[in-house]
Specification:
The chain is globular. It is mainly beta. It has two helices and 36 strands. The chain has two domains: 374 residues, 6 Propeller (Neuraminidase); 83 residues, Immunoglobulin-like (Sandwich). Strands 3-9-8-5-6 form a five-stranded mixed beta sheet, with no helix packed on it. Strands 11, 12, 13, 14 and 15 form a five-stranded antiparallel beta sheet that branches. It has a four-stranded mixed beta sheet with strand order 2-1-4-7, with no helix packed on it.
């Protein structure tokens, strides 16, 4: 991943020269709302949309005929199993009533918010190969920027502190795809002072290490507190992945790439195996056990020969994943070999999923000699078309200043730098559209404690997403 970022950086910069990080405005796409009628009940998702044109896709999943009405329009009476569509234009924000018409009449509202004229990226600073932006839970004053070379920088109320928060550069191999790749704060960080880092050592192997900040000084690290949680020996230098996030369950999720791009081993050699930690999303409890405990419910715990840490598998290089803290849904941007690039999704983050590498890239067969049990197809895929090259997984938006993007998942591509959004409804991607923003060398997303969204560039820029002024 990082190797690709470096090799393509010049081409990306030339490709996007002049585009920069500015907002563009174009006609808004038609938004899609799915409506399910079921014997006197109605489910509308999402129930919050922006001004403009909205397509209501209505399906009768009940046993009696029913119709749906909203915005002065209505469907015909739909027999069980039938469906219909309504396209309604909402010119003004407000609460618009809908009605279920049939044996039982039900009412509800669709909330319409003002559509932003566009979006903008405001640069907060320039760093050395930033790969992640994050913040301690509940701390809206501090922001941390992870630099691939092994340094973590800290901003307090927007001002960069002169000394690094943590400097691991003497122990970190900053070469190609190796480096300090992420950090995460424990849910109880305010009292425990615990945080975790994921990096490659000088031999390219993976370390996941716990640290604590110094007692009485949240801006310095007690280096003597270092406790290794995981060590993974790599078969080759690339495909590290490296993202970490605590889920709503309080457990730590860790992305590990398949460890080899096909140099020393066949592509995907470790993605379908369950007796190693490569090509997986792991779930562990670092607060208990020695050095960690296996959370109850891990799908492969107790299976002879399988690693109990594994949560999901069949991944190539899941450089960035995201768990929506409000819904629990899991999104994974898994970088592929020749495309299609893919975003994987699991509603409610149910474990034990196989994402199909190396049998498939997206839904396109790759290795027909491999066996993949019950592979989960991606929610979004897109081809390598000469300008795209590597998916950059992102985050879900819950910034109160961006109501039109509430609940949307953002992602992008390394080579185009374009940021796109979609809403996951019933396991499908709806309202898929670009934000008309380009970041040369786009390589990661992040969120702070106030739910602001950040975007990073291999050029060094870190930007905060905001709404453009009307």
């Amino acid at each position: 991943m990082v190797a690709a970022r470096r090799l393509l950086l010049l081409a990306v910069t030339l490709l996007l020269a002049g585009a920069g990080a500015s907002a563009g405005v174009s006609a808004a796409p038609v938004q899609t709302v799915r409506v399910t009628l079921r014997d006197g009940r109605v489910l509308v998702a999402p129930a919050r949309v922006s001004t403009g044109r909205v397509r209501f896709v209505v399906a009768n999943a009940g046993r009696t005929a029913a119709a749906f009405a909203v915005g002065g329009r209505r469907t015909r009476s739909l027999r069980p199993g039938a469906s219909a569509q309504l396209v309604v234009s909402f010119a003004k924000p407000g609460r618009y009533a809908y009605r279920l018409l049939g044996a039982a009449t039900r009412t509800g509202v669709v909330t319409v918010v003002a559509a932003a004229a566009g979006y903008t990226l405001m640069q907060i600073g320039t760093f050395d190969q930033p790969v992640l932006v994050t913040a301690p839970p509940g701390d809206t004053h501090r922001l941390f920027v992870v630099e691939q070379a092994g340094v973590i920088r800290e901003l307090v109320d927007g001002k960069l502190l002169p000394s690094p928060f943590l400097d691991l550069s003497p122990s970190v191999q900053d070469d190609d795809e190796n480096g300090l790749l992420s950090m995460v704060f424990a849910p109880d960080y305010a009292t425990s002072r615990r945080f975790y880092v994921y990096y490659n050592d000088l031999d390219g192997n993976v370390h996941l290490v716990e640290y604590r900040t110094s007692v009485g000084d949240p801006d310095s690290v007690d280096l003597s507190s270092a406790r290794q949680i995981l060590f993974i020996e790599k078969p080759y230098a690339n495909h590290n992945a490296g993202m970490m996030e605590f889920g709503p369950d309080g457990d730590l999720y860790v992305a590990v790439g398949d460890g080899d791009a096909g140099v020393k081993n066949k592509p995907g050699a470790f993605a379908q195996t369950l007796n190693d930690l490569l090509g997986n999303i792991l779930r562990i409890d670092p607060e208990h056990g020695d050095p960690y405990a296996i959370p109850s419910g891990n799908p492969f715990a107790g299976v002879p020969g399988d690693r109990p840490e594994i949560w999901d598998y069949g991944l190539r290089n899941p450089w960035r994943f995201w768990i929506d803290q409000q819904t629990g849904d899991l999104y994974i941007g898994d970088v592929q070999l020749g495309g299609p690039e893919e975003v994987d999704y699991v509603q409610g983050n149910v474990g034990g999923k196989n994402f199909g590498w190396p049998c498939f890239q997206g839904t396109v067969p790759f290795d027909k000699t491999a066996t993949c049990a019950n592979p989960v197809p991606p929610i979004v895929q897109y081809p390598h078309d000469g300008s795209t090259c590597a998916v950059i997984g992102g985050v879900t938006v819950h910034d109160p200043a961006l109501p039109a993007l509430a609940g949307y998942y953002l992602y992008g591509d390394l080579c185009t730098g374009q940021i796109r959004a979609f809403h996951a409804v019933d396991g499908k991607a709806v309202n898929l559209h670009p934000l008309h923003l380009a970041v040369p060398g786009l390589d990661s997303f992040g969120v702070d404690a106030a739910s602001h969204v950040y975007v990073m560039s291999t050029n060094g820029g870190v930007y905060r997403l905001g709404a453009a002024s009307p």
